[in-house]
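note to self: dont lose this again. the chain is below, predicted strucutre after it. 117 aa total, dont forget to put it in the shared folder this time
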Amino acid sequence: MNYKLLFICSFFVVSCSNKKEVNQYMHPNTITTSTHDFIPSEFNCSLGDTVYFILGPSHDMIQVNEINFNKNTPYPLKGGFNLGFGKSSFFIPTEAKKYYFVCATHLPKMKLTIDVK
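---
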């Protein structure tokens, strides 16, 4: 009897926890990580907007130039915006252009572009 009750309670807790419910409370300009992806992997915003990042423990984020982005080379852009593994922070674009980021551990799949207008 106790095992059935424990199973039912466990099932209820797991079924009620929904990742979408957690994400709805995040700022709409938030970029997160999942498995081997940035979510979203392409992001558009306006000059001066604040973009928030929440990285998982096995992910870093390195700003690279377009050439290194296309070659899947995690060579950091001098003076670029970089985050260490599992870190959270924010970024305020200062130029209207396309910004390129990669997760060095999960290249060539894990790449992010931020297009600022």
